[in-house]
Amino acid sequence: MLLSDSDLQAIWLTVRLASIVTFILLLIGTPIAWWLARAKTWLKGPIGAVVALPLVLPPSVLGFYLLLAMGPHGPVGQLTQALGLGRLPFTFWGLVVASVFYSLPFMVQPLQTAFEGIGERPLEVAATLRASPLDAFFTVAVPLALPGFLTASILTFAHTVGEFGVVLMIGGNLPGVTRVASVQIYDHVEALEYAQAHRLSAVMLVFSFLVLLALYAWRPGAKKGA
Amino acid sequence: MNAIDARFRLDWPGFTLDVDLALPGRGVTALFGHSGSGKTTLLRCIAGLEKASRGRLSFKGNIWQDEQTWLPPHQRPIGYVFQEASLFPHLTILGNLQFGMKRSATAQRVGLEQAIELLGIGHLLARKPDTLSGGERQRVGIARALAVGPEILLMDEPLAALDLKRKQEILPYLERLHDELAIPVIYVSHSPDEVARLADHIVAMEGGKVLANGPLGDTLARLDLPIRLGEDAGVVIEATVAERDPQWHLVRVDFPGGHLWVRDNDMPLDHRARVRILARDVSLSHNKGEDTSILNALPARVSEIAEDTHPALALVRLDVGNTPLIARVTKRSASQLGIRPGMELWAHIKAVALIG
To answer: For a FRET experiment, which of A128, A130, B82, B289 has its CA 20 to 30 Å from that of B246?
Structure first.
């Protein structure tokens, strides 16, 4: 066996985390992207900037604030405790919440671009054909933005797989709970287990390359127009 | 009967739309003007695609917009044809046609079949929009708007994005619409030719304001029409095909006040036809002129003389019986002939276009 059980466990945990985060961000990111693509108020600037913050912020800064917020005295921590959910830091779901913030721009920005690319016209056409705004969103905007949804989902998934700093800050290093692949590699290197580190790193490298290859070589709907 | 009462006030940076209009509930009304005149904005206000800050709009007694009411576009019983066909690329032609039909309470199967037949697109139904020519796409766009079973059809320069050949391809279909459609149509255009062919009623616009609003024949014959038509100044006369002369390939068309001989284009006898006579094709004379090559000379009475776009030229409004005519002559000729209101003379007509 090339990979140890703990390596496989870390990979499985990573895939689970990335899938859940992508799913949640599809639900949260889509309305945000839709609003950003169509809003005409001054609020669009500040909100767009907040969404983009994780792109430039050191993961440790993001992790630090999230840790404070989710901690026993933070607003999120008090809420989860009041709801009987306990505390989020150093749990899998804490990691999910942190990753949702961390990967937000990777979902929102491609979707926003896709929605902006559609323009007003198809939605106006839908309205003159008796479609309510919600109807038009699902039957016109979503199908037309499908390539954007694919790009956004792939990027979000891949980016969540690749996160490290936020995981360390929020999740720590608990096997099967928060020890994702990137942390596992770190552990291997710390323990001077270079062979294992090599194998897992190679898996990550190949995976990342394939994801990006899929994204760049096969552009769904790229030739479609009009 | 006025079916549409529209009052809109809309302020944009550098543009103000300020109209108060009553439009007929039947036939084709052309919103006519140069680009930037506000005609498309007015149409969009009627459709509810644009929301005028202050406005009141009623259609056949139903309020679509006033101080308290705002009916969103998807709840208005309209059909809308955009300048570009704007078909949904992810649906087939049939899918496009059914999109609105499925959502409309007033749509009927028959309506869809009629629309497909009327626009001649039956052979395209299974195809995707990107495989169609521009003219075919626009025909589908028109059929799609009709398939919802609208109570009024709004068309925003449906031919403007097409080249001359495609225009010629679609115009016959639009003329069929004009003849066969029972619902009122509002047709935005900057083309005098399209207006002459299709409109029954004309609203001339400039700078966000209405300059003239009336039946086509009367309005085109107005010399004070503040829109300078230049080379396109002229009249449109409703006439009937009355006699065929097979030897010379001509037909005689009768109108109130006279008749004209025009090239035979195979219209059946008794067919209602439109004749367009441009002011530049009408010259004036004291004689009937038996010795010229001009086929049509009509006895006319001068009713009005006005300035034209060039200082050398004058527009002369004539009455041939009850039918108005406009002639463009140089001021020197007008002076030599002594043209003044009330004078009787002959209008020699160099060219007549039989349309529709």
So the answer is: B289
